[in-house]
Design brief:
Layout: E1 9-15, H1 21-32, E2 37-41, H2 50-56, H3 68-79, E3 84-90, E4 95-102, E5 107-112, H4 119-122, E6 127-131, H5 135-149, H6 154-163, H7 167-172, E7 181-186, E8 198-203, E9 224-230, E10 236-242, H8 248-261, H9 283-300
Parallel strand pairs: 1-5, 1-6, 2-5, 6-7
Antiparallel strand pairs: 3-4, 7-8, 8-10, 9-10
Amino acid sequence: MPKIVDRPIILGVVGDSATGKTTLSAGVAKILGENRCTVICTDDYHAFDRTERAENGISALDPKGNYIDILGQHLKALRRGQPILKPIYNHYWGTLDRPVYLKPRDYVIMEGLLGYTTREMRDCYDVKIYLDPEEDLRVKWKVNRDTTKRGYTKEQVMASLEKRKEDSPAFIQPQRTFADIVIRFQTPESGADDAHLDVRHILRPTLPHPDFSPLFESARNNGLHLELARDVDGKPVDVLEIDGTIPDDHADKIQNLLWDLIPEATHLRAQLGRVDGAADVSHPLALTQLLVAYHMVKAALGVHAV
């Protein structure tokens, strides 16, 4: 299945800190082929290092602490297929490192905190995702990531969360309204590890979503649910829910349906749904990654490219 749109296809993955943006983006890149993807963290566009933010009393979540205008310029250049000189923010040391020269490949994945801040930026994306896991999960993920990968203590992480508690509703959460798909991982009532979380997809009509109806005669009480609902703004949306305990055979049926719709994307299927620190594959994560990749391939084919 050839790519017929003669420019890079751009995916946006936006959400608060530690919502799973990197995990989702990496999984989508594996499906599309990592050699065909350029993955960019928009948090690299911080205007200040960690010490300067503390001195200025400004959060990394605040657009004023980021070069939003330069990010917008770079997005437009990437969409035209032009290279950029991308800044680098070192998350471990909290420093601004030397920028890197990047050329866009067939697919560009932009993941970070503030990717939908301006209309100029939003117009550059072909597919827009917003990650909105339940808050207890996000806090757990943030503590784990920042203490194991970014040099913080647990006390420092909790203090940072408290300091930022007003910034997320002010700067991050309003971007939710611009997403084509809102993805919410949540813990089932019975409790579960990260490999067996439920996921809820709010599918907005801004994209032509795949037809899941062939699955539903046999899907009752079998881990997959689809209904018409109203979003928080009152607009009608489809809500697709996948249980963390969905049986392997039924998860395979859903995957096969999507793979059949995007036969080009056959790369590294066995890597779908891998969660850091978990021995098992998460079927909800795998299906989420595959659904996003489906839309990227369809955009490349001109089905809903903008």
